[in-house]
Amino acid sequence: MKKTKIKIDILPNLFLKTDGTFNKDEALNLAGKIAGVCYDKEGFSHLENEPREKTIRRVNMTLENGHHSVYDHILINFNLQNIPKILAMVLNNEHQYTTSEKSARYTPVVRQDGSIITEDEERLYNKWINIFKVRIKEQYGYIYNDAKIQKLAQENARYLVTVFMPTQMIYSTSLRQINYIATWMQNYIDEVNINDLFELKLAYYMRQFLDELERLNVLDIRLMKNEKYREISLFGNNLDKKKEYFGDVYSTRYKGSFAQLAQAHRHRTLDYQMEILKEKEYFVPPIIEGEKVLVDEWLSDMQIVRNVNPQGELVRISEVGKYEDFILKCKERLCSAAQLEIMLQTKETLLKYKKALEEANDPLALDIEKYSHGARCTFPDFDCANDCKFKAGKTLTRKI
């Protein structure tokens, strides 16, 4: 494996020791006091001054009997450094969190000593940035300046870079949740398919992640029980056999790149699962779709990096949620500023949803119709604060 290691720090908070580790005893003590609120007649102010021994007894009781919700009051802000993109996606698929992640659109890929990024990835990334800049300038130079074109070129060139590419993000979650996630990661490590390079690499970085949590004194074995046998939620099986349904709730499936799925995780009211395809396929940026020579060259270059699981590799995706939450997704993704691939997929799902509702004479057919005329700026219940003045963006026909 490469030299670069995951590193995690805890941002300053009530429970941060001077050595940078977590003051678990004080955090548990606070949660133990909070646990008494439900039956203490005088409320939390009375519990604040109760004998520590009484609080500790309550802590031990709640930890042992599985009443762990009080430990969700303890929020930890992690500064995750050098975390692989795919591991960030694993975390972001567990819904109890807030995250702020470095954007690949604004950050160029630069290979450094000890980096997991190969020379081929760096070379192809830079090659395609130059190609995309020319194509974008030719077709959309009238609407985008050079700085915007550079960002869009970077966003598309990163499809050639591994989904194990290290990234940085601030990740905030509760003491209970991070311990639960640690348990699911340990289960993943224990059950890894040793013949699957993707799983082996992910398990390797999960091990690093858990070692860092251990170093920071965040883990507690009593919170790491798994009586319900829950697992990492991102990975599914036989997703191609799931039936599609569109009504008050919906379930659909499609192929999308790792990069698109990472974008979709921002919609935490929706549930996503993914499955690696047996035969590899790759996303082709629409800006080059009409040029066979370039498309062939793109797919040929993807073959060069196929073993590193480039972000442009297609995976099978299952998406499940409520109708109103899908409309909220449309209000964010059907926009000229949204990443193109997820915009196209959201549009496709919207049209499929609309057709299914109309064929079933569902009352929602009247509602969804008003969202089917273009970008979100055409919606009757959305106010756009910044008119893009981009016709192809508003009609959802742009190619970049």
Q: What average pLDDT do the residues reach? A: 93
What is the highest CATH level, the class of the largest domain? Alpha Beta
Which sequence of strands runs across the widest sheet? 1-2-4-3
Specify the biggest β-sheet.
4 strands, antiparallel
Give me the CATH architecture of the largest domain, please: 2-Layer Sandwich
Termini Cα gap? 36 Å
Number of strands: 8
Question: What is the radius of gyration?
Answer: 24 Å
Overall geometry comes to: globular
Strand content: 5-15%
Q: State the helical fraction.
A: 40-55%
CATH topology of the largest domain, by name, is Gyrase A, domain 2
Structural domain tally: 2
The total count of helices amounts to 14
Following the backbone from N to C, one meets helices and strands in this order, namely: EHHHEHEHHEHHEEHEHEHHHH
The poorly predicted ranges are none
Folded structure, characterized:
- By secondary structure, the chain is of the alpha+beta class.
- The protein folds into 2 domains: 7-101 and 164-223, Gyrase A, domain 2 (2-Layer Sandwich); 239-394, Gyrase A, domain 2.
- The protein has 14 helices and 8 strands.
- It has helices at residues 24-35, 44-47, 52-65, 85-92, 119-140, 146-157, 175-190, 197-215, 258-264, 292-304, 323-333, 340-359, 364-369, 391-394, and strands spanning 7-10, 75-84, 98-101, 166-174, 245-246, 249-257, 271-276, 314-322.
- Strands 1-2-4-3 form a 4-stranded antiparallel β-sheet. Strands 5-6-8-7 form a 4-stranded antiparallel β-sheet.
- The longest helix has 22 residues, at 119-140.
- The two termini are 36 Å apart.
